[in-house]
Amino acid sequence: xxxxxxxxxxxxxxxxxxTGVALVDYTSxxxxxxxxxxxxxxxxxxAAGNTDVIRAKMRTMEMLGLKSEIEDILxxxxxxxxxxxxxxxxxxxxxxxxxxxxxTRANLAMARHQLKRIEESLEV
Length: 124
Fold this sequence. Notes:
Layout: H1 4-14, E1 18-25, E2 30-36, H2 43-64, E3 72-76, E4 80-86, E5 95-102, H3 108-121
Helix pairs in contact: 1-3
């Protein structure tokens, strides 16, 4: 089992094209840990903003009567992929992993697979 810092470091170093990663509490919008990002990309601001994305999707699913659980949400930009993976089980309720990828270097299918593996090993 990996702690937050170890899991974030693994995501940033082992996922090809990763430029930033955060563990976020979507009930508060607060990032519990971040790595990467930089001066031009504030992961704390992105974490808070993506909290609204999750809340909106959950409200929509509720209005539609959908009983499925969200695995992940993908946002594609012209030069980046933003992957939001909701944590399941083991106290992960209300948390998500947020991964920013350089779309020219990333393999999206592999990134999703690796992020799922990291989520499964994360101890919160």
